[in-house]
Amino acid sequence: MQHNLGTEKVSRLLWQLSIPAILGMLSSAIFNIVDRIFVGKISSNALTAVGITMPIQVLQMAFILLIGVGSSALISIKLGEGKKEEAEDILFLSFRYIILFLIGFAVLFVLFIDPILTLLSISEQVRPYAKTYIEILMVGAIFGIPGYCLNNSLRSIGQAKVTMKIIMATSILNMVLDPLFIYGFDLGIAGAAYATVISQTVLTIYVVYVFCNNKEFMIRLKRRKVTNQILLAKQMFKMGLPSFYVQILATVVNVFINNRMLAVGSDLDIAAVTIMSTIYSFYHMVVFGIVQGNNAICGYNWGAKQYGRVRSSLKLALVSAFMISTGLFCVIELFPGALVSMFAKEHELVEITKEGIRIYLCMLPILGLHTISSQYFQAVGKANRSSMLSFLRYGVIVVPVMLVLTPIAKVKGIYLSNAISDGVASIIAIVCIVMEVRRLKKMEQNQVCL
Fold first, then answer.
1. Is the pLDDT of residue 114 over 60?
2. Which of 83, 96, 160, 248 gets the highest tally of CB atoms within 10 A of its CB?
3. Distance separating alpha carbons of residues 172 and 161, to the nearest angstrom
């Protein structure tokens, strides 16, 4: 279904775009959850290996988001301005750049894998699992990740249903392959990695196919000579810089947290945080589905200077995120054991995680407002504002607070630091987005007067 981002009723349009995006992102989150359930049943060391190698994947994701989010945001604005040819140039450039990056990243990683694992302070018990798992993922990313990058552009042109079908199908494929490879072929943690790579590669093949062959899309992927490549690349990277900075900062902070966790806790505590992060990712995927729908509408209409539509979509997205965040918060606070038991069978690990998750995610009700706000500013080209809000949450606050609290409260201090960072950053984001909504109203009124 082709949506008219500039004329359809905003409330209907937001849900027509967001619900498929939510279902797609939700299926991806479920895939991550099921994947870690299977890995957790191998051993707690295997689950720890997945969690402690996360900084490597986050670092890789930084460059993927630099290209993927930057290109999709710029495509929305260019289409709103009526510049279809430039939008197709950006799509082609993003595909080319992501492949070149993934090849370079995989080569460097394979050459320096041992020093990298040493830098992550991985224990001898966990190291064999970690090395096997992350090597397969990094090399396989060359074939599996380009599709995720282009998927952002599918959403930016209003094709959320297509992305939903692709993600749901490949997530189901992964859930089928996980037990087959881990237990049927007796590959252990390597089987989980192979299942992920194969499902990602199927996604890439399909996304490239539909972008090349579907004539109903606003833009298509095709080989072309881009005359203004340097200018478009600069604009694309500028739009993607907030996501890039956040991922880089998150990598550094993740390594720092793991080191602090090992200093005051144990491998079990890292496994506990891995479970908490997985549960959070389930929530984040749902809210990010709303972000995808909202950003497609806001980016297009910002380019078309229809500020009333931008304001309407933004307000509805904020209310929706708050309601979803509050609902999950209630589930976590009331039934933590039921959630945690899906990921761990060891009694000690379950008890550690049950106690910690109530603190770790206690700011969920307002955290969704931060997510919508920071992503909105990126979608309309206000990269500096978006970066500032993201920096506050992903490092500027949490690191100094952790340095103060961990000597006093040990592992609980790490949980409290995350909660304090989420709370302060979200309050600042709320102030910024309230000011933006008022500004959009004035811009809309000025247009009426003209």
1. yes
2. 160
3. 17
* 450 pLDDT higher than 60: no
CA-based torsion, 162, 165, 168, 174: positive or negative: negative
Average pLDDT in the 370-382 region?
88
Place of tokens 């950006």: 90
Find, among 232, 205, 204, the residue nearest to 92 by Cα.
232
- Residue matched to tokens 């992903």: 394
Residue of 183, 150, 191 lying closest to 167 (CA atoms): 150
Q: Which of 373, 400, 401 is nearest to 388 (CA)?
A: 373
pLDDT digits (tens, 9 = 90+) for 214-253: 777 888 888 888 888 888 888 888 888 777 877 777 777 7
Share of the chain above pLDDT 70, in %: 95
Which pair of tokens denotes residue 306?
């229809």
Cβ contact 289:21 at 8 Å: yes
229 Cα distance to chain centroid: 27
Q: Chain centroid to CA 446: how far?
A: 36
